[in-house]
Write a structure and sequence with these properties.
The chain has 3 helices and 4 strands, in the order H-E-H-E-E-H-E. The protein is of the alpha+beta class. Bound molecules: copper (II) ion. Copper (II) ion binds next to loops.
C-alpha cells in the first residue's frame, strides 16, 4: 500500500514537471521587440560588431542595426533573453546601450 502511494506520488511529480516544462517553453514564451539606443558607433564596421554581440545572446531571433539612427532593433524570445542581457552584450562589446522608450 505504502509502496504504491510512493509510486503514484512520483508519477504525479513527473507529470507536473512535464507540464511545467511545456508551460515555460511555450505558453509563456513571447516574442518581444526592443529598440536600443547604442553609443559609440562611429564607423561602418561598428554596426556589424553590435549586431554580432546581440546575435550571440541566446533567445535573440533578429537584429537590425542602424548606424544613422544609432539604434539596434532586437527581436527576442522573452522566456530566454531579457533586455538587461541585450544591454550587457553591446556594452561588453564596447557599445553601451539603453532601451529607447
Ligand atoms: Cu567602428
Amino acid at each position: 500500500m505504502n509502496k504504491m502511494l510512493v509510486a503514484m506520488t512520483r508519477a504525479l511529480g513527473v507529470l507536473a514537471f512535464g507540464f511545467g516544462l511545456i508551460a515555460s517553453s511555450s505558453a509563456f514564451a513571447a516574442e518581444k521587440t526592443v529598440t536600443l539606443a547604442v553609443q559609440n558607433m562611429h564607423c561602418a564596421s561598428c554596426p556589424h560588431t553590435v549586431k554580432a554581440s546581440l546575435q550571440a545572446v541566446p533567445g535573440v531571433t533578429n537584429v537590425v542595426v542602424s548606424a544613422e539612427d544609432k539604434t539596434a532593433v532586437v527581436t527576442f524570445d522573452d522566456s530566454k533573453a531579457q533586455v538587461d542581457a541585450l544591454v550587457k552584450a553591446t556594452t561588453n562589446a564596447g557599445y553601451p546601450s539603453a532601451p529607447k522608450s
